Amino acid sequence: MHLSEITHPNQLHGLSIRQLEDIAKQIREKHLETIAATGGHLGPGLGVVELTVGLYQTLDLDHDKVIWDVGHQAYPHKMLTGRYHDFHTLRQKNGVAGYLKRSENKFDHFGAGHASTSISAGLGMALARDSKGEAFKVVSIIGDGALTGGMALEAINHAGHLPDTNIMVVLNDNDMSISPNVGAISRYLNKVRLSDPIQFITDNLEEQFKHFPFFGDGKNLSPEMKNLKEAMKRVAMPKVGAVIEELGFTYFGPIDGHNLSELIDTFQKAHKTKGPVFVHVATVKGKGYAQAEKDQVGYHAQNPFNLTTGKPIPSNTPKPPSYSKVFAHTLTTLAENNPKIIAITAAMGTGTGLVKLQQKLPNQYIDVGIAEQHAVTLAAGMACEGMRPVATIYSTFLQRAFDQIIHDVCIQKLPVFFCLDRAGIVGADGPTHQGVYDIAYLRCIPNIVVMAPKDEAELQRMVVTGINHTTSAIAMRYPRGSGIGVALAEEGWEPLEIGKGEILRQGDDLLLLGYGTMVNIAMQTAEILSEHGVEATVINARFVKPLDTELILPLAEKIGKVITLEEGCVMGGFGSAVAEALLEKNIKAQLKRVGVPDIFVDHAKPNESYIDLGLTPPQITEEILGSWFAKTPSISVAK
Question: How many CA atoms lie within 13 A of 506 on its CB side?
Fold first, then answer.
């Protein structure tokens, strides 16, 4: 059977091991071919091919439920559930999503973007099933990296106290999240999966026993000896099984995650076991592609690359350094002269650029794993003792620590510096990863300063500002991708005055207030407006909290027409802050807020999303001219 013929995962039923292995090979080929052409997540999906095929061969997915933790490891799942022929559209606008979406496919039983959610969701489904008197199976798949998330441990704690609730947890243990895993749980699992007794029993005794009469046929162990082998493994490594079973689960493993026979046999046994079951599967991230196996961090995700060499396809146009790179360079330079600076990340050392600091100043770098709540409260504790903690977390992931920001940092007025990477539109990762809510969810909290740079040079000044600010928490948001190409200084950056913006351009017809990345858009909009006889004043707000009302309000009152521009949600965002300030002072100016409306922004290239949202300078200009100046020119929008 060819993979292209599979439109329903139940078509795997009845296939031989050899046929299933052929399907697995085809999945890898399609996976590699697609990611090489379009870019995307590579290593995670390659590591779970056999796990997916083996598990689905033992389930009836017209009824049974599989919940994946994080979505980018579920690419084999997508190919087996009717999306093979559209897989080439992965992460493209109107194409197959890079994560799991219930609205995309009936077999995406639960959406997945952020980590550590699958056991909670699966347990919820299992309890609902039992309440309704139904009988389908529930399987939650989670990686060892995501297992460090407190939510996963809370769910395990709950499930283990429900001996009559059938649920299977499959641990995909590859010793990696995006970067190598950290912490005691990871160290312990790694010790188990690589322990000498297990390797001896698995590799040596199996090879010897299968050649003896009654024990095997020369190629495979008999079913009785397979059972004995599993029992011997349990004797050889009682600790992990004992820990899991003390928590209320029946434990199987660790098993070879690339051996279909062993996977299927174990899953079948686990399905027959009553109550919570924990199946420990050892896999290799990037399995089947040598470059990805060798460089598991670099090949977690890739831009388009040459499949033969593994090297990226070079861009035709050189790009300025990314905001993340500029941030990491600046922070590292400051930290070299200030041992109190401690950079904290939650399993995103590579994405945030902090590996640069880690390499130079390992004692001033902390990776807590996928544990954003812990990261924030850890930073609060360090701030109590006079350190300068810099919590560097993607905007979308900091949402998970909202309570800790309020309860542990801001109520206590602790000087934690939050650096929000990937703020704004992020592109192909889609709605789970868009960093569009941080302006709204931070500016409503007392005892915090909230700022955003207009370009990468101003980012450097804001890093210094954040380090120097010691009277409260302070947060800086900055976007994904390259800067706009301004000149950068290597050192000697001057801090900014808290709460003070700047005038970049003057005009009497309109006031354009830009925040962060939208300052450059405001300047471009002003240039186009000028061509149509409308002169605008442009302000770089810099701070949404405190807002520079001394600068903004007199100009708003004088000019009478105000546009706010932000790369974030309009509701509760920068424009709302300006509207509140105008209302409070009873200034009767016309106001338009430009930003992300009350929708979830789907996956697409960032420029495609900007057009869909009306955030390009020509679109903004056309709206302004038509609404306020009775002019309706047709201005082309570059695609």
Answer: 3
